[in-house]
Target: Glutamyl-Q tRNA(Asp) synthetase
Amino acid sequence: MPASVNGYIGRFAPTPSGHLHFGSLLAALASYLDARQNNGQWLLRIEDLDTPRNQPGADQHILQTLDAFGLHWDNTVIWQSQRLEQYQAVLDDWLQRDLAFFCDCSRQDLKAFAGVYPGTCRQRQLAPDPGHAIRVRVDDRLISATDRLQQTLQVRLSTDPGDFVVRRRDGIIAYQLAVVIDDVAQGITDIVRGADLLDSTPRQIWLYHLLKAPVPRYLHIPLLLQADGDKLSKRLGATPIAADQAPATLFRALHTLAQQPPAELARAPISELLDWAIANWQPQHLPAAPQFNEMYTTRR
Model:
């Protein structure tokens, strides 16, 4: 894929488990503004591997909503479900080189270990089985995940979480593996996403190391919470954003992202709002915390 003028390539990668809600819009808008202010590319990828969670038609609704909000992507949209051969090729290579192994441990087997894999199947050399998970081996080095906004996260993967799953027992490729393979393939240099994925970053850095690929720059924006303190999410029934209210919703999103758009833009068309936002994007104004202080409610 050709590089952008200055080498910046960002992306937005929603899951089609429902329509876009206000929290999704914040992540999309932040990544879009960061790319455009840096004269970079902004790519779109549909992360639809977790098929039990996918909702029919949600992917097309996401594309239509982004378009209605003026968030136009570059190049061709990628669906992860069309890239299974690429993921499997990496798994086959790692299994052959003993960088990964089959694991038949159930959740019940691991319940007593508080989320840290105890290495049960590391030396068992299980035969290939579609009903087995695949775990990638980790070592005891300290992984440092630096971020443009959040505090540096340092994790020793051998003790948190241990060898981790890259293909689930139901055969579905794990998010951690697919996202890194795709970001490498697309030449992603900068990742702007929600702070709920900050804890995933050390594992993804480890996978970049195994793939001998450069680690992108990260910017994890604070999460928007519901009144009960839960993350605003499709799973919890967050209200979809309405395309016919795009200008007002964009103006509100810029305020939520602490960009302080001038009051005279409150009734401006989308193109004018985005032009101002690109020229004035200042991610350092975001709170350096994993959550926004002001909680969101569906009544706002």
